[in-house]
Amino acid sequence: MAKRIEVKDLDIYYGSFLAVQGVSMTIQPRSITALIGPSGCGKSTFLRSINRMHELVPNARVEGQIMMDGEDLYGPTVDPVGVRRQVGMVFQRPNPFPTMSIYENVAAGLRLNNQRIKKADLDDLVERSLRAANLWTEVKDRLAKPGSGLSGGQQQRLCIARAVAVQPEVLLMDEPCSALDPISTQAIEDLMTELRSEYTIVIVTHNMQQAARVSTTTGFFNLRGVGQPGELVEIDETTKIFSAPGNKATEDYISGRFG
Ligand SMILES: Nc1ncnc2c1ncn2[C@@H]1O[C@H](COP(=O)(O)OP(=O)(O)OP(=O)(O)O)[C@@H](O)[C@H]1O
C-alpha cells in the first residue's frame, strides 16, 4: 500500500506570499519522515500540499511537482478528492465528528467511498481499523457511544483509525501528539512505529526527541530570513541529522540554540 513520494522544486504560495520555496525531497515508502524546524518555516504548509489540502485556502497554490509512485498529484486530470483519499491526514487536535458514535466515526469514510457496503463488511473494517489504531480493546463495548466521550489520546487514536479505515497509501500527521499527555503520546508513537511497515508516514513535530525516537528520515526546514520563504535546509537519515548534521543551522536548531 505504501507509496514513494518525489517532490521537485516545489514553491507554495498564499496569494502572492511565497511561504515555502524550492523544496525537493524523496519520501520513502514504509518509513517515517519527520519534518522539524522553527515556527513559521512552512512545515504544515508543505505537509498540506502533499494531499492537496493547501489549495482549500482561497488563492493558495503550488508550483512544481509532487509525484506519488510516478503519478503527478497536481496533474490536470487528477481529482483532489481522490488524492485526499489516498493521502490521509491526522491533525494537531483530535477532531472526531462530535455527534457521531465511535463506530460511525470510523465507518463514515468507508460509507462515502462505498455506499453499498454490507453491514457485516463494515463491521469487519471498523474492527480492523480500530485494532490497527490500538483502540479496539478499549472501545469494543462502547461502539455506539459518542467519539467525543473518549480521552484526548483515545480520540487521537480514533482519528488515526478513521484515517486508516479508507486504506490510504500515505499518512500525514501534523503534530499529532502536541495536545496529548506523555502516556497518550507514547501510545501514538508506538502506533506510528507499528503502522510504518504498511504506510508512508510523514510527521511534523516540534518535539525533537519524538523525531529522533520514531522517524527513519528527518528533514530540517528553516526560514531564509525575516519575511523570506521557508526552505528545506537538509534531509537525511535521522541518526545522521541528530549526530552529525551537514548544516550549521540544523545543528544550532537541534541543540536548542534557536527556534
Ligand atoms: N492560511 C494562511 N494564509 C496565509 N498565510 C498563511 C496561512 N497559513 C500559514 N501561513 C503563513 O505561511 C508561513 C508558514 O506557516 P506554517 O504554518 O506552514 O509554518 P509551520 O512551520 O508549520 O509553523 P508552526 O511550527 O508554528 O506550526 C507562515 O508565514 C504563515 O504565517
From TrEMBL:
The keyword Transport applies. Residues 5-248 form the ABC transporter domain. SUPFAM superfamilies: P-loop containing nucleoside triphosphate hydrolases (SSF52540). SMART domains: AAA. One of its GO terms (biological process) is phosphate ion transmembrane transport. Keywords: ATP-binding, Nucleotide-binding, Translocase, Transport. GO terms for molecular function: ATP binding; ATP hydrolysis activity; phosphate transmembrane transporter activity. GO terms for cellular component: membrane. It holds the Pfam family ABC_tran. InterPro entries: AAA+_ATPase, ABC_transporter-like_ATP-bd, ABC_transporter-like_CS, P-loop_NTPase, PstB-like. It comes from the Bacteria. PANTHER family: ABC TRANSPORTER I FAMILY MEMBER 17 (PTHR43423:SF1). This is Phosphate ABC transporter ATP-binding protein (PhoT family). It comes from Amycolatopsis cihanbeyliensis.
